[in-house]
Design brief:
With 350 residues, the protein is α/β, with parallel strands linked by helices. Helix content is 43%, strand content 14%.
Length: 350
């Protein structure tokens, strides 16, 4: 009887070891696919481009992040009231935040924007993990503090999605930041990586979560921390924005869903539930922008039925007014403008 039990226990142990090894290898392979390089997107979209903002002055900058050269720009007046560092969503680029950057420059802020590791103009074989933006943001803040013009300037952070997690979680290491706005940010990088695999893996993805956590930790180190941990480190003012029907960062895995765990008394929340402006991208857009986006889709559908040539497609997208398609919602910008003013006032009194 004892011998049978020992054989059974041994078989279970061997099975668990094999399961763990296979699971870890599959997880690593999944990460390599999920977090590969993201290069320049096609011009056949209404995503904003630098050429759409010819009046927005900029200076090219670059800095190192764990051996990769990240490239970006400084926008705005040299004597700005504060430096706002903006962080884009996963697989995106600094260009995608141009509507926000343009608006911030109009408020007399200087803005630092950059492409994260593995994205567009920056180096890196891939984006590595859902925590990589936090690592790159840390490098950006190191670079900024080495610049004489920013040595004593208050720093504000604005991040979307990947960047939303970054600007909140970074507070564990950067409690001197004056304030953060996290738009559509996820709470934990391992959880969002695990969620992204559930369509393909189903319930098996839930069983595999510990391996997602370990692989995220292996790739990102201490940066693989939650947004809640960052927010609760001190009392840095934070504004958390979430769309009610976000299909990418669903409310369940969002920072917004963690309200009861957030003990920072300086945290504010903004819920976006207007139809058509409650998803991952358009939650910051105006009703006019969303209506124009629909016009673009309808016009494109009509033209496609009329033997739309490649040159015709190129001409079509060249006529698209990308500034109009990405116009920010005035109610959203009013909240953020007021929040940043309050955050700077709070920082001045600390």
């Amino acid at each position: 009887m004892t011998e049978v039990l020992l054989h059974t226990a041994g078989a279970i142990v061997v099975g668990l070891v094999i399961f763990s090894l296979v699971s870890w290898l599959l997880c690593r392979r999944g990460f390599d696919r999920r977090f590969g390089r993201s290069d320049t997107a096609s011009g056949h979209s209404w995503r904003p481009r630098l050429e759409d903002y010819p009046d927005l002055g900029r200076e090219a900058v670059s800095f190192d992040s764990r051996g990769n050269t990240l490239k970006g720009y400084l926008f705005g007046p040299l004597d700005g009231a504060a430096l706002v560092v903006v962080v884009h969503r996963m697989g995106g680029a600094a260009e995608q935040l141009l509507p926000v950057i343009d608006w911030l420059v109009g408020l007399d802020y200087q803005v630092l924007a950059f492409d994260c590791t593995g994205c567009h103009n920056s180096g890196g074989a891939g984006t590595r993990s859902a925590a990589q933006a936090a690592i790159d943001l840390d490098a950006a803040l190191d670079w900024a503090r080495r610049q004489p013009q920013f040595a004593r300037l208050p720093v504000l952070l604005y991040g979307h999605s990947w960047g939303g997690h970054a600007v909140a979680s970074i507070l564990r290491r950067r409690p001197d930041v004056a304030g953060v706005v996290a738009v559509a940010g996820f709470n934990h990088p391992a959880r969002i990586a695990n969620q992204s695999q559930k369509d393909a893996m189903g319930f098996f993805a839930t069983i595999e979560y510990p391996f997602f956590w370990l692989e995220t930790r292996r790739r990102a180190g201490a940066a693989a921390s939650s947004a809640v941990d960052g927010l609760n480190t001190g009392a840095v003012p934070a504004l958390i924005v979430q769309g009610a029907r976000d299909p990418v960062v669903t409310p369940a895995v969002s920072i917004y869903a963690q309200q009861r765990r957030i003990t920072n008394p300086q945290t504010q929340f903004l819920w976006r539930d207007q139809p058509g402006r409650d998803d991952h991208i358009n939650l910051v857009c105006s009703a006019q922008a969303v209506a124009y986006q629909r016009e673009i889709v309808e016009s494109l559908a009509r033209d496609r039925t009329a033997n739309f040539s490649r040159q015709g497609r190129d001409d079509f997208w060249e006529r698209v007014d990308r500034r109009r398609a990405n116009q920010l919602d005035s109610a959203f910008t009013a909240v953020v403008q007021d929040f940043f003013a309050q955050a700077l006032d709070h920082a001045a009194k600390r």
